[in-house]
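Entry 14. Structure prediction run on the chain below.
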Amino acid sequence: MKLLDTDILIDLFHSNPLARAFIDRQDQAHFLRTYRDGHRIHLSDAVIAATAFLRGADIVTRNTRHYPMPEVLVIEPYQRGAGD
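Output returned:
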């Protein structure tokens, strides 16, 4: 397992070709390989899900559709617009 520091992800979001090449080589790891095509999972969500899975943690998010993995518990604490 590799835990990426945010600078790698920032480089990726800024279209750094070296970061993109590194990430492309990692596509075969964690939840990304399993859920990328059918559910359009992004690297950042796969990293969060893999970290939660390995640490036995729940994911708290309003974007529950980003985490279709049955291996992790996803909690939606509130819905957007509620309480506005």
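The chain has one domain: 6-75.
Filed with the rest of this week's runs.
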